Backbone:
């Protein structure tokens, strides 16, 4: 049956219940844990005669549960329109790959695509139809716990990763694909002070220029669903923000898919102080064209009344229901309610060796070598390595938002090392991971071990649950006890590398000063330990580059590369000098510790032969910018070559530079490749003084390089 036909046969109340989302376990015959807390009998106060007409369910893990729930649901439902199951498949389903901030650091679109496709396959075998991903919130504040889910601070890169991920999840919407749901629309990453759920307040120009493009890229890539954010945008909560959802997302961008709220965000409009009661929440959300209400029940409780009062039309409700039914139709559940669920196949496929291999490859390509005085890679013939630190012997490095992933299936760094150097690795914990731990009692043992071994690898950083939703930090340094451990180890052994595990950029000037080498593994997923070991021993060569600026100190935050010049810029050569009355600090440089796009390798790359095909660009035509990149070191390696453009003068101030292209290339020792970028008028468009999205005539600078500190090598003029 087709969506429209089904819709024609539904009563108003049945339609309204299609808009409701509850947890999967609400319908379980074997497990009703959540039913007691959030189910129909408690806070949601749903009509028990209609609960089996609910349209969608969230948070599903496991094929058997899905089959039980769907069967029970269809048995009890009057309309028998199958449920669809939605799940937070953030960085993998059962096989976890690195957190998304890590995947972005790979600068590898194909990798982002393939990892999402793998997650989709595992999830679909468990009966999941929709992944609540990609999360594409642009972010400039590492205190925010959810930076781990994001691609970082750049609109273009976030958009590229968003599109690749959407395509990976959705493919051709075949058996092993799931619908993607881009989130959190919009600007959730702009939370003030990096505190989750906090106020977001920015100009429309900033919103459109920096924050909206990644969501738009997902829409352009065909994403089936959009999730609204918890926050206010210009004073109005996103889910009830007609301007944001109806006017921009639907009317300007042409999105005709499903819009879902975030968890209980309808009702939170009361806390925001923009709605007095649930009825008003329902009105505002419907006015904004939000379709699915996740885990509150304003629609179910009040839409009928609003229709009776003439405040909401049945047509508005029909439109929302149609979009949901259309999604069900596209997913094929009317013909095949169990879709691709398959418990046996799930067991074979999930965390299978091929998926582990891809996750490992992902982790190796996401890791960023931040510093290396030459001690890395370690020689595999090393006599002994002291592996020390709170992140060395734990599976809890796969990252927050782990869906069905398990720490028990995650390769620890110690296991990874054993896989390469056997019992020549010796382990001591050194200290605990808690951010407030002051216990130094384990340090002596670790120092003794360090003094007995040829080399030391210290696994420092954060616990995986120090980032993720609701996990924000006011201090983003490693704890004092970890510095103490490093300091004491360095007293007895200088051959020390730090493997850092963190869900965010850390403020790490002090660590950078102390540690001879630092490899940032982020939170690397199920195969994290093997990936780390491969990188440390040179079986894999680091090629990741950071997509969020690392500050020297938290006081510099927000710090990002694509900033404006200001009227009193401080000259770069004066960065470390005090120049009063320039835009600067008394006590710290303006520059970050590590800039956007930065990352080292075990090999070296030389850039030469920078060329721009012409010095004028006529509207509608193209230019080519190119460079030759040569591997001049002694390892085969990969390099993310980056193109930046600066619009020198505009009707409004323009960023110092903006990433406009990147290409990840692989080069053998001594090999040279030409990398070419096309420059078009489209790439030069921005929100002008009149708030038109246009490219203005005038001068542009072109930069190609290894990171965002590269210098311009040519200029061109945009002419009519
Ligand atoms: C998060 C979303 C997530 C949803 C469902 C919310 O708390 O903000 O990102 O998709 O829960 O689990």
Residues:
């Amino acid at each position: 049956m087709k969506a429209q036909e089904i819709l024609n046969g539904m009563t108003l109340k049945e339609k309204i219940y299609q808009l409701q989302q509850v947890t999967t376990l609400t319908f379980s015959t074997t497990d009703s844990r959540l039913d007691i807390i959030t189910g129909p009998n408690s806070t949601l106060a749903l009509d028990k005669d209609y609960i089996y007409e609910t349209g969608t369910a969230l948070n599903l893990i496991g094929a058997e549960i899905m089959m039980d729930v769907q069967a029970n649901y269809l048995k009890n439902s009057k309309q028998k329109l199958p449920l669809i199951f939605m799940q937070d498949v953030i960085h993998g389903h059962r096989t976890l790959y690195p957190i998304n901030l890590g995947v972005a650091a790979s600068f590898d679109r194909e990798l982002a695509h393939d990892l999402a496709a793998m997650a989709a396959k595992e999830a679909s075998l468990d009966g999941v139809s929709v992944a609540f991903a990609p999360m594409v919130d642009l972010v400039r504040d590492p205190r925010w716990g959810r930076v781990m889910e994001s691609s970082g601070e750049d609109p273009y890169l976030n958009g590229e990763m968003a599109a690749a991920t959407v395509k990976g999840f959705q493919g051709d919407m075949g058996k092993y694909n799931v619908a993607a749901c881009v989130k959190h629309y919009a600007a959730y990453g702009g939370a003030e002070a990096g505190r989750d759920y906090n106020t977001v307040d920015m100009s429309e120009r900033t919103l459109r220029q920096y924050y909206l493009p990644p969501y738009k890229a997902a829409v352009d890539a065909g994403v089936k669903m959009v999730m609204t954010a918890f926050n206010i945008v210009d004073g109005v909560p996103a889910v009830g923000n007609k301007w944001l959802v109806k006017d921009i997302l639907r009317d300007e961008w042409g999105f005709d898919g499903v819009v879902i709220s975030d968890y209980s965000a309808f009702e939170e409009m009361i806390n925001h102080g923009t709605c007095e009661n649930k009825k008003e929440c329902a009105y505002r959300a419907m006015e904004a064209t939000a379709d699915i209400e996740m885990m509150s029940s304003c629609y179910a409780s009040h839409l009928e009344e609003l229709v009776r009062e003439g405040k909401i039309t049945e047509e508005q409700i029909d439109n929302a229901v149609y979009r949901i039914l259309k999604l069900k139709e596209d997913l094929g559940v009317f013909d095949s309610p169990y879709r691709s669920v398959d418990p046996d196949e799930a067991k074979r496929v999930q965390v299978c060796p091929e998926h582990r291999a891809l996750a490992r490859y992902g982790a190796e390509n996401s890791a960023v070598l931040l510093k290396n005085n030459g001690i890395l890679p370690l020689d595999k013939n090393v006599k002994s390595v002291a592996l020390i630190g709170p992140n060395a012997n734990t599976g809890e490095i796969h990252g927050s938002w782990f869906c069905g992933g398990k720490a028990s299936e995650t390769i620890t760094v110690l296991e990874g090392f054993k896989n390469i150097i056997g019992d020549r690795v010796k382990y001591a914990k050194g200290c605990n991971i808690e951010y407030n731990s002051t216990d130094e009692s384990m340090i002596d043992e670790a120092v003794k071990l360090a003094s007995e071994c040829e080399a030391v690898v210290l696994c420092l950083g954060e616990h995986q649950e120090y980032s993720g939703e609701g996990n924000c930090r006011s201090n983003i340094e490693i704890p004092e006890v970890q510095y103490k451990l490093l300091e004491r180890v360095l007293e007895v052994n200088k051959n020390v590398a730090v493997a850092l595990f963190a869900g965010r950029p850390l403020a790490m000037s002090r660590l950078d000063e102390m540690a001879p080498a630092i490899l940032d593994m982020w939170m690397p997923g199920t195969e994290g330990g093997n990936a780390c070991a491969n990188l440390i021993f040179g079986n894999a060569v680091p090629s990741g580059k950071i997509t969020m600026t690392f500050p020297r100190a938290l006081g510099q935050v927000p710090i990002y590369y694509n900033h404006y010049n200001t009227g009193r810029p401080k000259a770069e050569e004066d960065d470390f000098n005090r120049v009063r009355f320039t835009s600067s600090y008394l006590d710290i440089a303006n520059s970050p510790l590590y800039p956007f796009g930065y990352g080292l390798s075990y090999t070296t790359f030389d850039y030469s032969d920078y060329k721009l095909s012409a010095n004028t660009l006529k509207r509608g035509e193209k230019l080519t910018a190119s460079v030759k990149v040569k591997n001049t070191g002694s390892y085969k390696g990969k390099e993310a070559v980056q193109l930046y453009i600066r619009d020198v003068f505009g009707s409004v101030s323009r960023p110092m530079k903006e990433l406009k292209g990147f290409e990840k290339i692989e080069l053998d020792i001594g090999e040279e490749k030409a990398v070419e970028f096309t420059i078009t008028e489209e790439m030069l468009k921005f929100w002008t003084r009149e708030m038109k999205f246009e490219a203005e005539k005038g001068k542009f600078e072109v930069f190609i390089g290894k990171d965002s500190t590269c210098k311009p090598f040519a200029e061109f003029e945009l002419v009519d």
User: Anything to note?
Assistant: The chain has three domains: 2-81+177-339, 356-536, 605-719. The domain at 2-81+177-339 is CATH 3.20.20.300 (TIM Barrel). The chain has 21 helices and 26 strands. Residues 92 and 119 are 5 Å apart (CA to CA).
